[in-house]
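Chapter summary example: a protein plus oxidized coenzyme A.
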Amino acid sequence: MSEQEIKIPDLGGADEVEVIEIIVSVGDSVEEEDPILTVESDKASVELPSPGAGKITRITAKVGDKVKEGDVVGMMEAGADGGGSDDSGSDEAEEKPEAKAVEKGEAKQEETSEESKPAPKQASGGSRKETVKVPALDGFENVPVIEINVSEGDTIKAEDPLVTVESDKATMEIPSPYAGKVGKILVSEGDKLSEGDELLEMTVQEDGGDEEATVEEASDESAKEKKPEQESEEKPRQAVESTPEPQGATYEPPTPGAKVHAGPAVRKLARELGADLARIRGSGPKGRIIKDDVHAYVRGQLKQAQQGSGVATGSGIPGVKLPDFSQFGEVKREAMSRIMFATANNMQRSWLNVPHVTQFEDADITDMEDFRKAQKAAGEKKGVKMTPLPFLLKACATALAELPQFNVSLDMERKEVVRKKYIHIGIAVDTPNGLMVPVIRDVDKKGLWELAAESAELAQKARGKQLKPAEMQGACFTITSLGGIGGTAFTPIVNTPEVAILGVSKAAMKPVWDGKEFQPRLMLPLSLSYDHRAVNGADAARFTTVLSQLLGDIRTLLL
Ligand code: CAO
């Protein structure tokens, strides 16, 4: 067994390329032609193959290194049937088509910009129309388009990437031979391209023309002053390019329009594992996705699926694709607050997991309101304001005790119903930072004043971001009251793993038939959403009936 150097082969004219990924580790056994590392030039990313079969003993290059032909990037111990001499290994590698893809990526530039420019079709006032065709693709044919890098109406510079294609061996960007404005795009993602195929139409600026100056100005990112009409044309492109990277996690919802930077090996791995590269945050140079990112993403997704927690993108339901909003008008992106992100996930998880039904009822609270208002002076003495909420809490606690099928959680994995012997109720509080749900414990054991004081204190704490985690846990049921704001009814989302939630809307005077005549009564709209797996419709109607009876005659709350 002999040790041999692993050298960068002929790069087909490219002076220096950047190492963007090391594919193998020390100790790995490789076959001849197995990819060792991925390098990237301006135009293409390419995997460099092993010069022979054997075992990797040393890797001397690291991600970010600039390498050129002949540089030693590692050592390997040639296997019994592989390797050969240093020279033959390198020579072999020089002949590999994948190593040459870099060369073609560069050569293709010259070709398209110098020779393969089609003759002008039409000239009008400094611009002309051109149909851009696919240049030579290093002998490859039927190469699929994996990304379209421009949109119709974009103003672009010569050499800007138009589309990205991917062969078995290399990912290549086809650059624009002209500066100008993108017209009709004639290909779609997935289309297979060969040399000479039509890519897109462009309005190309003639040399020295007045319009050229305008376009070049607009396409020059450093230009400070732009004409308004050009600015609006450029905006979508800028917005896409400047989309901020999501923070904090390897996996994020896809950023529509964002480019995916990944080499062929990574793309292959992602395909094999069924991972959507658009959802993966790259940790390599310039945000490039490396294999570790794909593995971390897949591990994270599996963990979430197993724990039933995390970012819910829907049980196999395709995500919602966002358009590039900046094409419709000015937009600004800002990070979600932690609470907003958590609420969004909780809502989606509940919506996707729980078959929701909402039962509506009006409770006559005319007498309750008379009583409540009569407590005003007492409340002022105590320093506590009596709102309808404590009555609702008390009525719900009584209804939960009467209909214990509402005081459960479902354990679908173990096929069990968890029955709770306590009655803790969450109250949804609208805060400047988002929705928070503090929990009042043992509501059944507390009086109205105690509940009024505790709910006011918890709401204040929620608004001041002072709630402790324990104060937001353990609820059996939730009340969400929009009564102080308005509305006639709504369909709240169950706060899983609870199985029901009571929505309360604004009380209003309504004519109620008493058998002889209409009476003006203060009616409180109730909306009970429930998990139809745990609760049947008849029980839901019973629950709201019990609530309306209790609120209609609050003396029964004492029974
Ligand atoms: N009908 C008519 N008036 C009502 C009412 C109802 N159903 N409920 C409350 N009110 C009145 C109160 O009596 C009070 O009036 P006065 O000042 O004249 O006495 C006023 O509305 C404001 O009440 P409040 O909101 O301060 O107090 P509350 O105890 O009713 O509610 C709380 C407390 C924390 C539930 C509430 O402030 C809140 O944040 N509600 C929003 C909850 C929410 O966002 N839910 C949505 C979740 S899903 O997105």
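Key point: Residues 80-124, 208-253, 309-314 have pLDDT under 50 and may be disordered.
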